[in-house]
Amino acid sequence: MIEAVLVSGFLGAGKTTWLAHHLRTTTEEVDLVVVNDFADEGVDHLLLRDAAAQVNARIASVVGGCACCERLDELRAVLLDAVNRAHATDARAAGRVLIETSGLAEPHEIVRMIDDEPVLRTNLALRTLVIVVDGLDGRRLLRHRATVRAQVALADRIVLTRADLAHEEELAELAATVRRLNSSAEVVAAGLGHERPVTPVAPPVPDTFDDAEAAGPEPRSWSIELEPGTSWAEYALWLDAVCRAHPQRLLRSKGRVPTANGPLLVQSMGAEIARPVPADGHAGTSMVFILDGLAPDLLERSLRTFVPSAFAAHRG
Predict the structure, then answer these.
(1) Which tens digits make up the pLDDT trace of 110-162?
(2) Are the CB atoms for 291 and 222 separated by under 8 Å?
(3) Which residues contact 296 (CB under 8 A, 6 or more apart)?
(4) How many domains does the chain divide into?
(5) Which residue of 31, 135, 213, 253 is 20 to 30 Å from 1, comparing CA positions?
(6) pLDDT above 90: percentage of residues in the chain
(7) 41 shares its domain with 138
(8) 184 with 219: CB under 8 angstroms?
(9) Domain with 18 in it
(10) Type and span of the H or E element at 266
(11) Helix 107-116 and helix 146-154: axis angle, to 10°?
(12) Cβ atoms within 10 Å, residue 164
C-alpha cells in the first residue's frame, strides 16, 4: 500500500518552502512528489527539484489549474503511474507520495477521485492532510477567508510558517485562532527549516470572522472511543448514511475502528469515504469528527443506536 500525504494551504502560505525543508530532513522514503500549480507554467517543481533529488524522489507537475477540478484527470494519471511503477518493482517497498496542491484546491475532491478509481482505492491510502498557514498573515486570512478556515478545520497537521520572522506572541495568538477551528490537529511553528512546538495564547482582542453570523457556529471537533470488536459492517453503514445525510455538517472523520479482524484506519471528507486500510501498530481506538453545525450529542446517540457493537454496555 502506497501512503499519500496531501500538503495544502492558501496562496503564498509557504507550502513549497516547507515541503523543500521537509524533503531535506525526512527519514522516510519518498518515491514521488506531485506539484500542482494553478498557473499554466509551473515553477514550484523547479524549487523542489534539488530537495527531491536528495531523497531520490521523482517530481511530477500538474499545471494549468487545480488538481481537484480542472486537472483532476491529470493527477489521476500521475498516481496510476506511481502504482504501476511500484508493481513493476516491489509494491511492499514503495515509498510515500507527497502531493502539493494549489492554494485554491479542495482536498475532499481528491479523496473522492482516489475512492472512485478502483486501482487507486486498492493501492493508495491518504494518510495525512498537512495544512500550511502563513505565520505572519494567518490571523487576517482566517478572519476574512472562509476557504482558509475550511482547510484548517480538515487538517491532521497544521504548520505555521515564517516563524523566524513572526513575533512569538503573534504565533501563539495565531495558534489559538487555529485551535478554535480545529482542536485535534497537531500544530507546529516552522522557520528556517526547523519545526518546533507552539503554545496557543488567546489574543487580547478575540477574532471575529467575517461570515460567522451567516455561517453559524464555528467548526468543532468531537472524539469518541470505540470498543475492540466493533462491527465493521455496522460502522460502515452508519458512516455512509451520516456522510450522505450531512455532507456540509460532518466535514471530516478520521481515526481507528478496532474491528474483530484488526484495527482499520478510516477517513471521510464530506460525503466521500476513503477506502479503509489496516491501521498501524500505534495504540488508540478513537474516532475524531470535525463538525460544522452538527451537535455531538445527536451524533453520539445515532452512533450508539446503529453501531451497538462499539459500546461494551450493549454486549451480552
Answers:
(1) 888 998 999 999 999 888 999 999 999 999 889 888 888 888 988 999 999 99
(2) yes
(3) 220, 222, 289
(4) 2
(5) 253
(6) 47
(7) yes
(8) no
(9) 2-213
(10) strand 262-269
(11) 50
(12) 12
